[in-house]
Amino acid sequence: MHPLTARPLRTDRLDLLPLRAEHAREMAAVLADPALHAFIGGAPDTPQALRARYERWEAGSPDPAASWLNWVVRLRDEDRLTGTVQATVTDGGAAAEIAWVVGTPWQGRGIATEAARALVAWLDGQCVRTVVAHVHPDHQASAAVASAAGLTPTDHVVDGEIRWRRGPAG
């Protein structure tokens, strides 16, 4: 498998920019609301801790069979970062697990949906056949994003989250 790399993506309102360590300071502010962690657990990172995480992500997966692809989501009309989307591509490039997060001040504006749709469309263009996401059963907003991105819920539960899936059965 030739590892995939994140490339800039553009939608009507958003720029999805490959995540870099230098995004950490602004993203720490975007992700600072403790309520944002209600479904995903943990607590907001300091800018230093987030920078260290972003440096690890930027270095790429230690597993040569997996590609870590991470983007920051920039809302063009506000010239601000508002969240992230990510994909871990495996199975020889045929499968991806995706995730998204949008800072509390920008939620409810369709940003996560627009970014997730762009990500799934890009993955389609890379010949990724199966896309999955894991959504907490009580997180109705994330379930709506998954549905809008073309995924459907399954009966499979992983760590208390429902697996949503798009692609061939298997």
Can you describe what's shown?
- It contains 4 helices and 8 strands, in the order E-E-H-H-E-E-E-H-E-H-E-E.
- With 170 residues, the protein is α+β, with helices and mostly antiparallel strands.
- The chain has a single domain (9-134), classed as Gcn5-related N-acetyltransferase (GNAT) (Aminopeptidase, 3-Layer(aba) Sandwich).
- An 8-stranded mixed beta sheet has the order 1-2-3-4-5-6-8-7, with helices on both faces.
- A hairpin with a 4-residue loop joins strand 3 and strand 4.
- The relative contact order is 0.16.
Quick structural overview:
By secondary structure, this protein is α+β, with helices and mostly antiparallel strands. It has a single domain (9-134), classed as Aminopeptidase (3-Layer(aba) Sandwich).
Task: Specify the overall morphology.
Answer: globular
The overall pLDDT, averaged over residues, is 95
SSE order: EEHHEEEHEHEE
**Text of the CATH class:** Alpha Beta
User: How helix-rich are the residues, as a percent range?
Assistant: 25-40%
**Can you tell me the residue ranges where pLDDT is under 50 for at least 5 consecutive residues?**
none
Oligomer type: single chain
- CATH architect. name: 3-Layer(aba) Sandwich
CATH topology: Aminopeptidase
CA-CA gap between termini: 21 Å
**What number of domains?**
1
Q: CATH homologous superfamily, by name? A: Gcn5-related N-acetyltransferase (GNAT)
Question: What radius of gyration results from the CA coordinates?
Answer: 15 Å
What's the total count of β strands? 8
What structural category do the secondary elements indicate?
alpha+beta
The strand line-up of the biggest sheet is 1-2-3-4-5-6-8-7
Largest sheet: 8 strands, mixed
Q: If helices are DSSP runs of H or I spanning 4 or more residues, what is the number of helices?
A: 4
